[in-house]
Design goal:
InterPro entries: GHMP_kinase_C_dom, GHMP_kinase_C_sf, GHMP_kinase_N_dom, IspE, Ribosomal_Su5_D2-typ_SF, Ribsml_uS5_D2-typ_fold_subgr
Structural class: alpha+beta
Family: Belongs to the GHMP kinase family. IspE subfamily.
Number of helices: 10
GO molecular function, one term: ATP binding
Domain GHMP kinase N-terminal: 70-148
Function: Catalyzes the phosphorylation of the position 2 hydroxy group of 4-diphosphocytidyl-2C-methyl-D-erythritol.
Distance between the termini: 12 Å
CATH topology: Ribosomal Protein S5, domain 2
CATH class: Alpha Beta
Bound molecules: 4-diphosphocytidyl-2-C-methyl-D-erythritol, adenosine-5'-triphosphate
């Protein structure tokens, strides 16, 4: 293989259609019963064989580390350690997923790096091993490999695909400032001291997804971290109220926030709502869901 070969993998953002959070376990992580859906905002990650690990962005993005702290480098090191190999790569990330927005952008980069390096070096890592390595990197990373719609249990790392016959449009309202996931979970513990030990699996949401009923999905959207995120970011309340007034099928905080989403059944309604928001100076974009998980787009 010539050293200039590279592989580009595209990995999606996620939303949690349902995020049920329990009280913290002895290891500090929270048990979850969540339904992930991959949505059409993407990071593209290109990996090339190199003498040392490095990471670059195609355009500067505030808040993304460009050293060993980048989760993509951690993913590469975890994969080579798994195989007992002394290899390294140059990793170039084209970020389309908001940073620290609760849409698992870093997790997408980790998943893309695992898949890209596996293909670049023809490591033939089994799916089970890739998912296991992904789970050691972060709770949301296994889902970024799987994509579509999936039930997440454990601390979010155990993913089981579920039938989803919906095809909806998310109006994604971007925030200029991120929110720290650990800080939101810490505040959740303060305001929800009686959270369950095992949060229940949301059966009605699973039925609505299987039925392809976007209106019912919109009614059932739920996120236990929402009150904690609202406390930490009171400015979200006004945007949330405005989104509700545009009469979408439902409104949701993405994961630990601060990205807010409105679900529309029709793309034309979503476009009208996006244009109205843009006129008010609020940054937003549209994303379809569900979409595929991490996948190779280029061998060059
Ligand atoms: C909010 C969600 O995005 C919902 O899917 C995830 O739970 C967060 O997933 P993530 O960003 O991949 O999180 P990780 O990198 O695994 O953990 C970051 C930090 O979030 C908190 N954390 C995360 C997941 C979890 N089930 N319980 C937690 O308390 C912990 O403080 C942890 O140290
Ligand atoms: N490749 C990466 N892209 C973005 N952030 C990264 C990356 N690697 C490390 N980080 C660090 O991780 C933090 C969280 O980034 P990320 O964009 O994944 O947040 P998030 O979308 O809120 O995550 P989640 O939804 O999984 O909780 C960033 O503030 C940054 O310090």
């Amino acid at each position: 293989m010539p050293p200039s070969w590279s592989v580009t993998v595209r990995a999606p953002a996620k939303v949690n259609l349902h995020l049920g959070v329990g009280r913290p376990r002895p290891d500090g992580l929270h048990p979850l019963a969540t339904i992930y859906q991959a949505v059409g905002l993407y990071d593209d990650v290109t990996v090339t064989d190199a003498d040392d690990w490095s990471v670059e962005l195609t355009e500067p993005v505030a808040g993304v580390p460009l050293d060993e702290d980048n989760i993509a480098v951690r993913a590469g090191r975890a994969l080579t350690a798994h195989h007992g190999l002394d290899l390294a790569a140059r990793i170039v990330i084209d970020k389309g997923i908001p940073v620290a927005g609760g849409m698992a952008g870093g997790s997408a980069d980790a998943a893309a790096t695992l898949l890209g390096l596996d293909r670049l070096w023809d490591l033939q890592t089994s799916d089970d091993d890739l998912l296991q390595i992904a789970g050691t990197l972060g709770s949301d990373v296994p889902f970024a490999l799987v994509g579509g719609t999936a039930l997440g249990t454990g601390h979010g790392q155990l993913v089981t695909p579920v039938p989803d016959a919906t095809s909806g449009w998310w109006l994604v309202v971007l925030s200029d400032e991120g929110l720290s996931t650990p800080a939101v979970y810490r505040h959740f513990d303060v305001i929800e001291p009686d959270a369950p030990i095992d949060p229940p699996v949301p059966e009605p949401m699973l039925e609505a997804l299987a039925d392809g009923d976007v209106v019912a999905v919109g009614d059932l959207l739920a996120n236990d971290l929402w009150p904690a995120a609202r406390d930490l970011r009171p400015d979200l309340v006004e945007v949330e109220a405005y989104l509700r007034a545009t009469t979408p099928e439902g409104v949701l905080l993405s994961g630990s926030g601060p990205t807010l989403l409105a679900l529309h059944e029709n793309v034309s309604d979503a476009r009208v709502a996006a244009e109205l928001l843009n006129q008010r100076g609020v940054r937003c974009t549209l994303a379809p869901g569900p979409v595929a998980g991490a996948h190779v787009v280029t061998y060059a």
